[in-house]
Batch of 3 targets.
Target 1
Amino acid sequence: MVRTPLCDLLGIEYPILQGGMAWVSTAKLAAAVSEAGGLGIIGSGHQDAHWVREQISEIRKVTAKPFGVNVMMMSPHVEQVMEVILEEKVPVITTGAGNPAKYIPRLKEVGTKVIPVIPSVALAQRLEKAGVDAVVAEGMESGGHIGELTTMALVPQVVDAVKIPVIAAGGIGDGRGLVAALALGALGVQIGTRFMCAAECEIHDNVKQMILKAKDRDTAVSGRSTGHPVRALKNKLTKEYEELEKKCAPVEELEKLGIGRLRAAMIDGDTEYGTVACGQIAGMVKEIKPAKEIMNDILTGAEETLRALGVK
Ligand code: TUI
């Protein structure tokens, strides 16, 4: 089975992290991934500290294995969420959409491993100096808030620029992607979209069905002009965004259009006017199955790929 030094660093069996997706990655999904030998990650998004504490309590009821919490640095609750993470001595945090440097000393004191998601070499280097344990280099094939570089271009440049472990994310959904990431020098992968169609994932069924039907060109990036580009499945909302951006609509108008839309998709199942955030590999997701089977598919796929390449 595929194992790397990242497994020892995090106390997991396989070098697979499940993306900490807002409104998607609940304790139930994260527990299933951790139980299957990966690192399940609770996505805290814009949720408050109380919600995060409850989710940590939920995951601890069902698994004794390591887990993570993703902290969205643009959340209005970020300070209080970090306090909960410190109090609960969460094993691992990942961060997104910003720089967690100021929290690192206190997190290290309680033994929390800190793994920021980064879209560039410069930020990876800055955070390595600040003492992070690893980085997730996330390419723009990902869903949700994205950077500018592709995974293929970003990962090897980050690998060459830092000494800490690099985890690849963006456009990875099966064993071939895992092997490709390892070939680029990553010690593991973070996978989001594939786990949205896990049986344990609690998002609305409309979203799962839309992903199952998606083809390769069905995602679009909205909001480039606001400085916060978001990849999601094309629908009436992304069409409206496109038209407003073409007309050079004011940033406030564009931002107003996005408020509450992620929740509308994931919880209420509004696949027409909600933000159905997901990555470009949506076109490869063909079945809903338990997280353990998804993990097995990825791992056996990786072994088959290595065999086909003649790697022992
Ligand atoms: O964070 C994500 N994906 C997300 S966050 C999210 S909620 C949201 N919705 C609208 C706007 C913004 C967020 C939905 N999906 N992925 C990790 C990620 N982090 N991608 C890009 C970044 C990033 C961007 C800039 C990380 C650091 C950064 O640094 C800026 C700085 O402070 O230097």
Target 2
Amino acid sequence: MKNIIDIVEKHYDSIVSLRRHFHMYPELSAQEFNTQQKIIEELSALGLTPRKIAGTGVIAELKGALPGKTIAIRADIDALELQDECGKPYQSQNPGVCHACGHDGHTAMLIGVAKTLVELKDNVAGTIIFLFQPSEECFPGGAALMIKEGALTGVDAVIGTHLWQSLSVGTSGISYNRMMASPDSFTITIKGRGGHGSMPHQTIDAILVAAQVVTALHTIVSRNIDPLEQAVLSIGSFKSGDTFNIIPDTATLVGTVRSFSMDIKKIVFERMEKIVSGICQAAGATFHIDKTFGFPPVINNPQIAEVFAAASMETLGKENTLTIDPVMGGEDFSVYLDQVPGAFIFIGTGNKDKGIIYPQHHPKFDIDEKALGYGIETMARAAMKLSSSKENF
Ligand code: NI
């Protein structure tokens, strides 16, 4: 059997070029038309038969020579609404659009995995499905549409990666259960009675009511959630009033809730309702709460995570395959995990020596491209292990 490292090495430069191409020409969620076209060209050149799915997504399959399971590998392909300030020759040519989350690398890596596994076809068991998913950055996300259009038909397990800035290049991070949180958001509108700042007794001060609500909401995580559970409630916007001598009648609070289970989510939102209701009632104000429930949490299947970690250990070494705590960010990879077992892994891209220090979604975000090779190798190894596995997931 040909050596995976040699194959990845052979294709490395072309994958870096592809990543830079996607970085130069980023496209927003559900508008990834040129990206889709480029993926189709690349996969077709490998002798695969890619087809369009979920609008601007692509699906392709590779049948191995040996009998085995069907394993899907997913990459998200969309960019962010952000001005690129990476300052590199491959800086975004599309004003206000930037691959600041690393999805350019995800797309290039999955093409790299396809190139690698096509060469190893005689040793590949089962079927490998390549899922290039649009609209990860934009709720409700492209995963649901991919699934609706058959992306997981016959699939036994699904794997995916995210390039991860806070991990150094040459390392990976995985959790054997909870990996990423469920991100929800809320808007609380409080209605009081406006009036002159010199006559507060004639008003119901929406600012004061909302200020009490902000303080009280912060007791939910500290006082109502089991300290061994994980939850976050943050308020990112507080808007009310325009000028110094008018007590405004309305205040609006916008925030996010992050959690890992429906039970915790339920407690947070039930308490929110009670707290806002109680404070508003006491003040004589009224309120309205708008909730938007985001993606479910990313919960790795422990058995598949073990296989993924083993693939990473073969690629990066045991000491560089880190067991990490879950992160409170969200990902619509979870939508696949709701349907079939699977696992998600972070591939480190940070490199202080090269000045690659800016976090994901920052205008100066960039990756150490060495990570692309590590990601390809890890995914290719994991897919081969899983498709030839005799275990029941
Ligand atoms: Ni992302």
Target 3
Amino acid sequence: MQRGCFIVVEGGEGAGKSTMAAEIVAYLRERGVSDDAIVRTREPGGTPIAEDIRKILKDIRKDDCLCPEAELLLMYAARVQLVKTVIMPALEAGKYVVGDRHDLSTLAYQGGGRGISRELIRSIRDAVLGDFYPDLTILMDIPPEKGLLRAGKRGELDRFEQEDRDFFERVRKVFLDEYEQHPDRIALVRADQDFAAVRADIRTILESKCIAG
Ligand code: Z5A
């Protein structure tokens, strides 16, 4: 059986990743991919254990703070659980997996945002995931102030959303640096356009990569 395809949507908060992940699923359906051949994931999360880890990562604790290195290891604990129990089996069964964030986020947030060295992140990644990578990453780029404004409309902010402006600028810079270094596997979309324009750009990328067709 032909291996499936792992498509990841990445970017800053409020970029519209979840919205566009749903649009990618709609695109696949239009091209005749059946519902049971499409799996959606989100990170951190996506399995019962990984969702428990997500709660630890997102909750604001007044009585303790999470060290950057502990945060990094929890991200990878959740990710390995998801990759090994959900994503890999789905790909082996020939399915499409549409992921809301994956490990580019770790380089951006724990690397750029928290200042953990790229070498440490890469060594943990390589040790637990080996040569596993997404087939396509769509990076939705948006200036942090615009993304945070969208995200802020949801109400209460989580532990990440309470970081300062510089944090999000560093995160964005790593995302864009990675795109510049790997334009073969990362596609860039301007996420501060209106919904129809973002959707059209994503469709053009999927068509150019011959996804589902
Ligand atoms: N994190 C990390 O540090 N390291 C890691 O390795 C990983 C994650 C994997 C997960 O939070 C947090 O974990 C995240 C990074 C960290 N931290 N933050 N902050 P999450 O999953 O809860 O949140 P998120 O990933 O940032 O997603 P989000 O804020 O929900 O944003 P989104 O998915 O990109 O956007 P959306 O929900 O699709 O849209 C947001 C709003 O904008 C919504 O009202 C939409 O209707 C609207 N929208 C969408 N598109 C448009 C356009 N084009 N125009 C206008 N309005 C739009």
